[in-house]
Amino acid sequence: MRSTKWLSIVALCTFVTACGDSASSGPDSASKDTSTPKPTEATTPAADIKKITDTPTDLYIAYPGAGENVDLFMTRFGEQIKKKFPNYNLKYVPRLAAEGTNYYASALGSGTPIDIMISSLGTTTTYLTNLKLESDISDLIKKYNYDLTRLEPSLIDAQRALANGGIYGLPWTVGSFIFVYNKDLFDKFGVPYPKEGRTWDETYDLAKRLTRSDGGQLYQGFSIQIESAMGTNQLSAPYFDPKTHKSKFLEDSFLRAFENMARFYKIPGNETPASGVVNGFQKDKTIAMFMGTSGQVKPTAELIPNWDAASVPEFPDKKGVGFQSAPEYFYITKAAKSRDAAFQVLSFIASEEYQEWMGRTTAILPVMKDPSKIMQTYGAELPNFKGKNVAALLPKTYAPLAVTPYLTIGNAEMATVLKDYLGGRDLVSSLREAAERADKRVAAEQNK
């Protein structure tokens, strides 16, 4: 009831300009923060931080991934933020379905001061920079002496790349590609469980051994969410050139990464399942091994009690290197009226306190450079996590991030390329055509 009330208040404000005084909510006020006095030292004392958090403050937060679902925002973030900062009045700014791709037009048009935008790295262009909301928070990091070295370095490197050396936000989840398997199918066919540090070729052999028909039922060895996997591949082969934004689908490393994973679907009987790779693994329970986004850990545990995890397959020349991270961030926007108050929220979300709670209750992977302590309680309040090899969900080393603002365009093209490739088309020709389509879509985005 409480969260629904917040949603209605902000939704009303997005359509009624009288909700805010134009003199105090216009763009010139974005850099002003009336919630706290300026510090006299480079590092703000704890007493000043307390003064900020003790001051009643309205914070407007947008979470495009939740759309109009304020309950998802509250469950994942809002309730914990309110516990930590009871004097903050959180106001959720919904992404309205009626606005289509004209994201947050009503809110921004009426002067609603979005203080925090929550977005994945791949959609940062859509929800931050395209809306001209990006804002460097390096001054706040210095002001509050926030220790960036506690965080997984690749997550900060990604921000440096996006912000030309600055930082727009702090991460709330690392995201990653994970490898899980159904122990029941291994036991059924007498096949040893996947070992740590195995290569892609060894995983290919396992997939062939497990793909078979038994009692009239087809069982498949291995399925991959290959479209997303290419966007975070272990070879750091990028979709696009970081400067020109021209596609690089025909580079040798890109071809190697694609063919390495696509070959699994050419094993006789191991084709893409009709129900989809996720449903085939979790619901049909006819796929022995699955590799996909880290958001699939929790539903896997719920639907396959006898599951476990292992490290992702490795290239022989890239031992210990996992996929690239797929982080999501809390951004303080250019429209923020309460930057100092908002930064306390960012600091909390990226803290061990919140990260431990998140892993324990939601099975979302942490952003810390050393996650070992947090992983000790990972999934502890969820069913079917006890005794699982959850440490394997995180790689020893993340592959270097190939940052691109057009990740979703690349992922979409990979789905088409995979379909063509499995249908017998020449891979190079299919990738060349995909590159031409992608370049046109990127150009269209840039000309908006």
UniProtKB/TrEMBL annotation:
Residues 21-47 have a biased composition (Low complexity). Residues 21-48 are annotated as: Disordered. SUPFAM superfamilies: Periplasmic binding protein-like II. PROSITE patterns: PROKAR_LIPOPROTEIN. Residues 1-23 form the signal peptide. Keywords: Cell membrane, Lipoprotein, Membrane, Palmitate, Signal. The keyword Cell membrane applies. InterPro entries: Bact_solute-bd_prot1 (IPR050490), SBP (IPR006059). The keyword Cytoplasm does not apply. This is Extracellular solute-binding protein. It comes from Paenibacillus ginsengarvi. The lineage of its organism: Bacteria, Bacillati, Bacillota, Bacilli, Bacillales.
